[in-house]
Write a structure and sequence with these properties.
This protein has 309 residues and is an alpha/beta fold. It has one domain: Carbon-nitrogen hydrolase (Nitrilase/N-carbamoyl-D-aminoacid amidohydrolase). It is built from nine helices and 14 strands. Strands 5-4-3-2-1-14 form a six-stranded mixed beta sheet, with helices on one face. A six-stranded mixed beta sheet has the order 6-7-8-9-12-13, covered by helices on one side. Helix 5 links the parallel strand 7 and strand 8. Helix 5 runs parallel beside helix 6. The longest helix is centred in the C-terminal third of the chain and has 19 residues. The chain is globular and about 55 Å long. It starts with a strand and ends in a 9-residue tail after the last helix. The chain binds D-[(amino)carbonyl]phenylalanine.
């Protein structure tokens, strides 16, 4: 049994006015609590240092860049990285990355128990739109503020297993999990910020959104025989509700833990990484069962093309 005690650290709302220092205090409290319960890995949400700013239309570079981090760790997050290293706890942290070349990504990093950054990921699937859309109840401007990720879906051997990461909308796309599954991933960790109501389909409410969220994480876990850890930023940010539903899903696709509040909340579970082996050696023994000669369209074609009428 390769036990990895994982903390899934949900954040409640971060208001637009809340300084990063206050958020880091909340992250530290969740880190300490996770360590107190024996965790050696803590998964924080997407864009964990600030409010979900892509809901706001902004034009000036200075106004936009104020939401981004120029290095990681940096002055405001170093106390968190230092404490995690002292406690011997690895961390998934989502944040907005501004590179020295001026490129912007929705990014996550993974540190090991020695506090070293061992993996970096940049969000590939960016939902929403680029220009202000007056028809929407609220904006979702990730395509305006971020470039699609350019690192692929890498995995790393760390924390006693094969670790992988993705971010929010990525969890809805089977390709995300499968590319990591083809690298033997045993833990896919992700943070998310998901509105409780659809900015376009007024009918779809929180329950439908939670159903699709659970479905996406459970199918990704089951179809690639991996643990999936999903940490929400939840609650009402400046009047905009985000649903919770932080999850720990086992390699059979079963939800073993789910958050109950829309506040800062910690889930902890002793994940046996050896439980990934059964699926990988039987029903999802990719080498034995996959027929790649028939899968060409998946990478050759972006949009669907139906046969002519
Ligand atoms: N948020 C949402 C998500 O994928 C979304 C966007 C909501 C897409 C609902 C589709 C339906 O969970 C982010 N940040 O990707």
């Amino acid at each position: 049994m390769r036990k990895l005690v994982i903390g899934c650290a949900q954040l409640g709302p971060i208001q637009k006015s809340e300084p990063r220092e206050m958020v880091v205090t909340r992250l530290m409290a969740l880190l300490e609590k996770a360590h107190g319960q024996g965790a050696t890995l803590v998964v924080f949400p997407e864009l964990a240092l600030t409010t979900f700013f892509p809901r706001w239309y902004m034009e000036g570079d200075a106004e936009v860049d104020a939401w981004f981090e120029r290095e990681m760790p940096n002055a405001v997050t170093r106390p968190l990285f230092d404490r995690a290293r002292e406690l011997g706890v690895g961390m998934y942290l989502g944040y907005a990355e501004l590179t020295p070349e001026g490129r912007r990504f929705n990014t996550s990093i993974l540190t090991n128990t020695a506090g070293e950054i061992v993996l970096k990921y940049r969000k590939v699937h960016l939902p929403g739109h680029v220009e202000f859309d007056p028809d929407r109840a609220f904006q979702h401007l990730e395509k305006r503020y971020f470039e699609p990720g350019d690192l692929g879906f890498p995995v790393a051997r760390a924390l006693g297993g094969v670790m992988g990461m993705c971010i929010c909308n990525d969890r809805r796309w089977p390709e995300t999990y499968r590319v990591m599954g083809l690298q033997g991933v045993e833990v896919v960790m992700l943070g998310f910020n998901t509105p409780s109501v659809n900015s376009q389909k007024a009918s779809e409410g929180p329950e439908a959104r939670l159903f699709h969220h659970r479905l996406s994480c459970q199918s990704g876990a089951y179809q690639n025989s991996t643990w999936v850890i999903a940490a929400a930023k939840a609650g009402v940010e400046d009047g905009h509700p985000l649903f919770a539903g932080s999850l720990i899903v086992d390699p059979d696709g079963q939800i073993v833990a789910e958050s109950e509040t829309e506040e800062d909340e910690l889930l902890v579970h002793a994940c046996d990484l050896d439980r990934c082996a059964f699926g990988k050696d039987t029903i999802f023994d990719f080498a034995r069962h996959r027929r790649v000669e028939h899968y060409g369209l998946i990478t050759q074609r972006a949009g669907a093309e139906a046969p002519p009428e």
